[in-house]
Fold this protein.
Amino acid sequence: MDLELMINSFPKLLSAAAITLKLLTVSLIIGLFIGLFFAILRINKNKLISKLAYGYSYVFRGTPLLVQIFIIYFGLGQIEYLRSTILWAILKEPYWCAIIAFALNTGAYTSEILRSAFQTIKPGIIEAGKSLGISNKVIFFKIQIPIAIRQSLPAYGNEIILMMKGTSLASTVTIMDLTGVAKYIISTTFKPIEVFIVAGGIYLLMTFIIHNVIKFLEKKYSY
Amino acid sequence: MEILAFGDTGWGDELFYATLMTIAVSITAMFIGFLFALIFTPLKLSKNKFLNFIANSYTTIIRGVPELLVIYLFFFGGTGAVMFVASIFGYNEYIEINAFITGAFAIGIISGAYSTEVFRGAIQSIDKGQFEAADVLGLNKFRKFFKIILPQTLRLAIPNLSNVWQITLKDTSLISVTGLVEIMRQSYIAAGSTRDPLFFYSFAAVLYLLLTFVSMKLINRLEVRYSRGY
């Protein structure tokens, strides 16, 4: 056990963890909107629209995140047309490519979570809203969404933790996140176990915090 | 389509063998995962607090740490660990571990943590009366487990194990960082040599979709088989 290496690498890994958290929060926020959008499409009565939304979530849940990042980072740059548009300013940055891939990935899982939450809302609740003369829009935002959020909290908590682990793939496109820095230290010192303990410990701490925040929210919003 | 031709002119045969490799690694990893589940599920269900602690640490650590980090640990640490054990027995030459074994083992340990949770949940949701009935009938421990508990556990576990299989299958793409030529690695090589990453990574995505689709169909049939009588 090389304690000195563990102590020396701790601050480096900790500052890399900040990048991991940044990647995580940005992609979760974008992913939540994507997920909500596709969940609404999924419960649409139009078969074609709901099939399209299902196709999106099927493709992104059925393929590895690594493939998705590589398609966006290495693949999209190949399209000449894209290079001439303003989008290229975003797509040439590995950071944004990773975030796009993460957001689309988590969006697919989030849309499934939200869809099942919408579908478990008892029709009676919506009917009650209608009979009180509340408009459809208000029913959706004031009745369906709050209930759906409460319903989907446990599953969404798991998704946040899975996504946090997913951000480690950013290191494959040259981003120095927690895993990227850990790999760099391992490959320069050849002390995998020590680095794994420190980096893994930081990840576990983040998992622990997320887990407890979700548990707290579940309690707060339980009825 | 020329680019996917079999033989020297295209990448068809390479990608075909890479797909077989992905399937082989996934199945091996899933199997190793079952072995781990076989050890850790009883520890989780044990009344001994210390054994509980060991099993809980295993599942918590593995499920809370990124797969890629675990793979790096095995990739960089595996050789050292094996050479250390070998040196105890007096063997001091350099030992190179096969990428397949390292990869399957790393993914297997991850898959095992998920399988353990699935089996624990399934066994816990079996009615207590089933255990008692088996005891009352005087079945020995072995027969009680294999004839009464296991069949019911499987019925409850298969839908969740199918999720574990999906996770395992997708996780194998990460082994490409260790150089094992599976779908992802082969696509990387092909993309590099043809300068057509968009096509090859999209094709890799299609291959993975195909694998998940076919395996879901097969697992559904298994589910039907084990739900007979319900």
About this structure: The two ends of chain B are 48 Å apart (CA to CA).
